[in-house]
Amino acid sequence: MDFQLNRDQLDLQNRAEAVGASFRGEAREWDESDNAPYNDIFERIRAADLLGIAMPTEYGGQGGGAIEYLVVVEALFRNAQSWLPSEPVFCTSGPGPSMLLLGDAAVKEKYLHDIVAGRRACNIALTEPDAGSALTHLTTTAVRDGHYFVLNGTKSYVTGSNVNDLNATFVRFDDIPGAKGIGAVVVDTAMDGVTVQRGPTFIGDRGIAHGNLILEDVRVPAENLIVGPGQFARLMTAFNLERLHNCGFWLGFSQAAYDEASTYVQQREAFGRPVVEFQAVYHTLADMWVQIEALRLLAYRAAADATDGRFPRLAEVTQAKLFGATIGPQISLKALELHGGYGVTTDFPIQRIHRDCVTNVVAGGAPAVMRNGVAAGLFPHRKFPQT
Ligand SMILES: Cc1cc2nc3c(=O)[nH]c(=O)nc-3n(C[C@H](O)[C@H](O)[C@H](O)COP(=O)(O)OP(=O)(O)OC[C@H]3O[C@@H](n4cnc5c(N)ncnc54)[C@H](O)[C@@H]3O)c2cc1C
């Protein structure tokens, strides 16, 4: 068992930290205006050579795996104190591109070279207005018509919907009920019948849209199939990279909250002493740090044990994500409290960090759903009906 990053991983971490820190002064403006120069962000991440890091070299990727992915997104989140600079990594190497790796040669050849090189980028579109946790109840349909699938339905909360043109989209084939009917296809927002709708407005993670994709008789070429019906569990193995991304968020943002609190309490004085010298304060920081280190062990174990080094295993990544979503908002709230009244002013970034944390609690799957998954693993011979 080795708890150290190797030389290449440390180099990756250094580059991600440096470019991440270069964004920090801009995060406030993106948050306030709910607008960000996405192309500029993308190009700076490209210049730091952080696109396609966990994609195979045959598609132009850097040949890294889940560990390299986690190293990079954690460092970006912590140093940028914004979720935005990790998006180019997500869209060229995260769950969407990983899902495409499950497809036939046709879909991979058609899209992966461009995605990995950052010429195009791929969102994930699973959620619907009436089916989030209840993913197996999604109602967007795909019906075969000659060389096409005809899609109808609405996808919601699609992060990056207004800036990236490709979407790994979950659909129900031929009205087959339940998980058995679900597969995925690549939808290009330029296809006839696709409408991208920005919104709703979020309290955190601001700057680019988490929007809707409305699909009306969209004719998707058959070669855009990622996986067909009957392979839901396989499809979800690639989705596990989304949960690892969430773990990177919690690690990065918990540390960003810790960093801000640690700096503030060493500068702020009360009763003639820096407030860090009060036991209640330094114990709070110590507790935060131990929680962060525990999350680090869970998250990096999930990355280190990933199947083929690439697809995190469900049980481990679910435990890590659940722990992150539990401690992350607690840490950011404590960090805000340590700022006293200044914590809730826009003069300090901690309120934005806390809003971003709250915004991410259910992203990638609500904590209760994670608990369902952990419990199902603890009691494999029992069924806990969800309907
Ligand atoms: C910041 C952010 C980014 C996102 N990005 C994307 C994206 O890029 N692509 C995408 O497809 N989706 C995205 N989503 C959507 C996200 O995956 C869903 O919001 C999430 O899965 C929860 O679904 P829901 O919002 O429909 O909540 P619901 O499923 O309606 O849940 C409401 C409540 O009911 C509880 N609940 C539901 N079912 C159960 C159950 N079986 N057991 C116990 N409790 C249950 C939940 O825990 C929750 O507390 C994003 C969401 C956010 C907040």
From TrEMBL:
Q: What keywords would UniProt list here?
A: FAD, Flavoprotein, Oxidoreductase
Cofactor(s) listed: FAD
Domain Acyl-CoA oxidase/dehydrogenase middle stretches: 124-218
User: What's the Enzyme Commission number for this chain?
Assistant: 1.-.-.-
Membrane-crossing residue ranges in chain numbering: none
Q: What PANTHER family would the database entry show?
A: ACYL-COA DEHYDROGENASE (PTHR43884), ISOVALERYL-COA DEHYDROGENASE, MITOCHONDRIAL-RELATED (PTHR43884:SF12)
What's this protein's name? Answer: Acyl-CoA dehydrogenase family protein
Species source reads: Rhodococcus opacus (Nocardia opaca)
Q: What is the lineage of its organism?
A: Bacteria, Bacillati, Actinomycetota, Actinomycetes, Mycobacteriales
